Structure to design on (646 residues):
């Protein structure tokens, strides 16, 4: 992630942490991610772009062994460190990926990160970084902007989220700008992201050495079917703004 | 929450105000602005003071996404000592006998402004300074000060608010080697190494041993008694009940969760203790107490405050041991580096402080430290030197 892209998060730590209580994350994204991750007992995990350390804390509390949170944004990491030392001690938070982290992790989680690659080469580098941290056979779970998200700015507004494509006529162009605005309970903040198509994401992850790619739609795990989910979540569940991509790092050739 | 808003002509990007107690603020939002070294401005430390000594006003600056800068306020001490402005400003002409507003936690010997990182940090600091001056003027203060700031933090704050930087203290700290005390001793001259070995040997010869535990597990009345004995010996005036109140406040605020107590014992008698706080990658030494009714010459102070914590810090992944502002020679002799500390002052009447006098004072103080502690000064002292050119 470029310095500029990272810097835009410096003031957003508390607001970002608050989103964990917003229904689209609390009822849908977070349980979907935790379900996809499964049992983490004893696993070494790197939370790539950990932000406030929300997932890092949960993974530690669920029994993960070594947990490292990485984020280049100092403002986010300050929040992460301060909160984790009270609630989930033993997590290490770093602002850069040192060589000794390469190939060390059973699981790399990268939630809402790939959209902050602002160019094709940057997307490729980011994927290479994520996959390079995995031991052979380790898993990557990442959540980019959904390649079929709804580009109308009002669509997600009821969820405290506004995604607006720079070019509304052509919202699904690789590298196209997307402004993401968070707004709820009197607080607001916005960041600039980029759209990446499914083909580009698969290509970048594949070139980075990730195999067995699976796409998993976000859902509400508590509800067996869409019509059993609370009505106010239906619109989000029909067009979630994010999606899980999962894959495994290729084993090194013998 | 009683939140008085300040008018901000300078910037509509922020909303500033004063609340009358820290509990009006969200703990996590506050702490997100607090760096590893700034433990004494962390939420729970300040809440502990509030529980023990009563609430104070809090200045805060909000952006659209939340808190961007904040600090607690108090009035300093009204009698000579470390928090008496005429003493802090000795050698610098100015209206220091008048009332000044003090920024930071009460009786803090390390202060930084809790503030966001990034491109709007400077603006956020400037807004906090503007708000502090308005608050001070409304209440008839001659200005405001923030004391005991690391030099670079002081320069940054003064630059943002148009204040003056005045050196007034220094703090000792140790970088913790991975191998703890052994690693530290390996870097020393043979004389210092032998001295440490003989002090530790004397401690053991007297039948003393060290036990680590949580401060919460200790009896507050005993802890307070030992700390008060030590403070009285060096001129402290607070009694045991005062210290007990402080410890009770810490239990209530939860800051003691970060605490670690090194206790020296002979048989089952507690002969001394040192209380530290872990915060980020730093171990902060705050209290030393001793039973001086026992006439022991067993180097318990050095064992508890320097040698043992180096091993404790290394074993717990901590990389820095932050000591206090006193007895710097003893600390330097045991491997500490000395860091400059400055006070930032902003007078309501700008003409009441002469910036060139402040620089002259800083040059003088720099020279004194260079003469007294050659080879033991942190790199910040080089910055002090480069900033004191009268034309800067």
């Amino acid at each position: 992630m470029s310095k500029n892209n990272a810097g835009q998060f410096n003031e957003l730590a508390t607001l970002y942490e608050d989103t964990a209580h917003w229904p689209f994350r609390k009822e849908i994204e977070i349980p979907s991610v935790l379900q996809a991750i499964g049992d983490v007992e004893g696993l070494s995990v790197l939370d790539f772009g950990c932000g406030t350390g929300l997932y890092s804390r949960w993974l530690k509390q669920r029994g993960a062994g070594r947990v490292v949170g990485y984020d280049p944004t100092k403002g986010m990491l300050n929040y992460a460190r301060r909160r984790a030392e009270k609630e989930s001690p033993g997590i290490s938070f770093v602002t850069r990926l040192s060589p000794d982290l390469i190939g060390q992790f059973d699981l790399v989680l990268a939630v809402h990160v790939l959209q902050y690659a602002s160019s094709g080469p940057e997307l490729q580098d980011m994927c290479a970084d994520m996959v390079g941290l995995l031991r052979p056979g380790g898993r990557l779970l990442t959540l980019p902007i959904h390649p079929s998200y709804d580009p109308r700015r009002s669509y997600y507004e009821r969820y405290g989220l506004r995604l607006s494509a720079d070019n509304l006529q052509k919202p699904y162009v690789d590298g196209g700008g997307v402004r993401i605005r968070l707004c709820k309970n009197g607080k607001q903040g916005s960041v600039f992201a980029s759209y990446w198509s499914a083909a580009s994401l698969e290509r970048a992850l594949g070139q980075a050495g990730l195999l067995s790619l699976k796409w998993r739609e976000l859902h509400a795990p508590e509800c067996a079917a869409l019509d059993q989910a609370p009505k106010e979540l239906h619109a989000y569940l029909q067009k979630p703004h994010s999606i899980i991509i999962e894959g495994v790092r290729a084993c090194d050739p013998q | 929450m009683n939140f008085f808003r300040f008018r901000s002509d300078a910037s509509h990007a922020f909303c500033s105000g004063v609340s009358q107690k820290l509990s009006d603020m969200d703990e996590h939002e506050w702490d997100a602005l607090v760096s590893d070294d700034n433990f004494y401005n962390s939420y729970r430390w300040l809440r502990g003071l509030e529980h023990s000594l009563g609430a104070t006003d809090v200045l805060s600056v909000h952006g659209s996404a939340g808190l961007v800068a904040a600090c607690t306020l108090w009035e300093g001490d009204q009698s000579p000592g470390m928090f008496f402005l005429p003493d802090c400003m000795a050698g610098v002409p100015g209206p220091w006998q008048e009332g000044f507003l003090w920024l930071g936690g009460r009786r803090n010997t390390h202060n930084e402004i809790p503030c966001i990182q990034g491109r709007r940090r400077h603006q956020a600091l400037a807004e906090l300074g503007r708000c502090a001056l308005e608050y001070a003027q409304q209440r008839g203060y001659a200005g405001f000060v923030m004391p005991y700031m690391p030099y670079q933090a002081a320069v940054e704050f003064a630059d943002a608010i148009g204040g003056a930087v005045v050196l007034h203290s220094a703090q000792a700290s140790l970088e913790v080697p991975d191998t703890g005390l052994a690693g530290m001793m390996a870097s020393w001259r043979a004389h210092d190494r032998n001295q440490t070995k003989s002090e530790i040997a004397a401690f053991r010869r007297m039948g003393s041993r060290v036990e680590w535990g949580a401060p919460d597990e200790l009896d507050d009345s005993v802890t307070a008694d030992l700390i008060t004995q030590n403070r009285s010996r060096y001129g402290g005036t607070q009694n045991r009940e005062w210290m007990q109140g402080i410890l009770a406040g810490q239990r209530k605020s939860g800051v003691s969760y970060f605490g670690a107590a090194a206790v020296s014992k002979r048989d089952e008698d507690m002969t001394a203790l040192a209380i530290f706080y872990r915060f980020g990658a730093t171990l902060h030494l705050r209290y030393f107490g001793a039973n001086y009714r026992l006439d022991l010459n067993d180097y318990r102070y050095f064992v508890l405050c320097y040698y043992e914590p180096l091993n404790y810090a290394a074993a717990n992944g901590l990389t820095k041991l932050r000591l206090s502002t006193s007895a710097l020679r003893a600390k330097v002799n045991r491997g500490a580096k000395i860091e400059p500390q400055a006070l930032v002052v902003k007078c309501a009447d700008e003409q009441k402080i002469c910036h060139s006098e402040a620089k002259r004072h800083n040059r003088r103080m720099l020279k004194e430290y260079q003469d007294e502690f050659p080879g033991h000064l942190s790199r910040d002292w080089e910055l002090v030197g480069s900033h004191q050119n009268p034309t800067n």
Summary: The radius of gyration of chain A is 17 Å. Chain A has one domain: 3-148+196-249. Chain A has eight helices and ten strands.
